[in-house]
Amino acid sequence: IIDQVNSAANICQDDSNPSPSIEPSDIPSAIPSSYPTKQASANPSNSPSSSPSEELSSKPSSVPSSLPSIVPLLSQLPSGIPSYQPSRKPSELPSYFPSEEPSDMPTDPPTSTPSDVPSKAPSNYPSQQPSKLPSLTPSRIPSINPSMYPSVQQRSLIFAPIPCIRSQDDFFFENATLIENNLNGKGPWTTNSSKAIRYQGIGTINDTIVDLKITVKNNEEYQRHGNNGIKCVNETCSTFNFGKVNLKAGLRTTLIYSFVDEKGYPFTVPAFYFSVYDIDQSDAVREEYGVTGFINATYDPANAEASYYESQYNQSSIFCNKKSGSGEHCLFAESKKKGKGCDNPATPSDLGKFSCDDNSGHSNLRTFQLYFENKDKFEVFFEAPCTKKCKGGRNFLFAFKSGLVGDCIEDN
Question: How far is CA 311 from CA 42, 253, 263, 380, in A?
């Protein structure tokens, strides 16, 4: 008997190789074991074990494990936070929060509910419900139900195809001349009586030289903090690639963009692009934009650097709410990340990754491009809301064709 007691005591004291019990306890321990039990516990522990269990628990843990489950079975409920690596098979229900970017290849079979952003390649079999936005490449087998909007009318994702405009019919600032710079009578060229910004010779359509004229909509407030007109390429400002409007912090205004001929008469342009760049913010002042009347839009709808909403999906701005009954499309964009002067694109096509002055990001995510048809004017809403004490202002950079789309086949 004494030998048996001593033997049992030695077993209890030897914890150099702890191992889990055969069956889990009803109440989880405060600290997980080094190795999982063969069977899942009824309630998960507060912290996941270093290795996943061979069988899935009936309830997900509050924090996901760094590795997926060994057995690729479907959990009954998704975890609150997605795992770092995807599971071999999708869960029956999607996770509460999608990953920042879709996977390069779709799951096979697809999830029961489509993701908001399509994957780069289509799945072999369609989902039970169509996705909100079509994939860049069509699926081999069509979905049972049609999509909410046809691909021809659907606003495109970043790099998605939009109608092509040949370079000889497009607009550029490189050969234009700034001849008026007195928006709403606020200067800096106070000798101009037109109270406008005017760029002469942005392009030629059907042998007509076209100018771009910007004015403030009737009875709307406008004040500037910095200079308007152009963003210079060099120190002498002999050439420029972008137009620029500065707005004092805490204000909002609506700008009228008009196309006129040399004599100042309205000119209807058959087709043109319009792009907004460098959508960012300071510590105290953000940027918000609204544009209406376009046919097609190119932007990245799911990124961490800027937010984009179309009125058809989400009327998120005062400007787009006012335009909701007009029957025209309205795009609302707002900044989400801080910007500095060094991250501004040098040319309209100069978009991509940047890292400078302790700031990094992607300029293409902070840009959107619109396609218009048969317009002699359109409206752009610009607001610089303050998150802290209103101080300074924000620059609105714009041009025509951007680096979000490639050249036309006719140009190559």
Answer: 46, 19, 36, 14
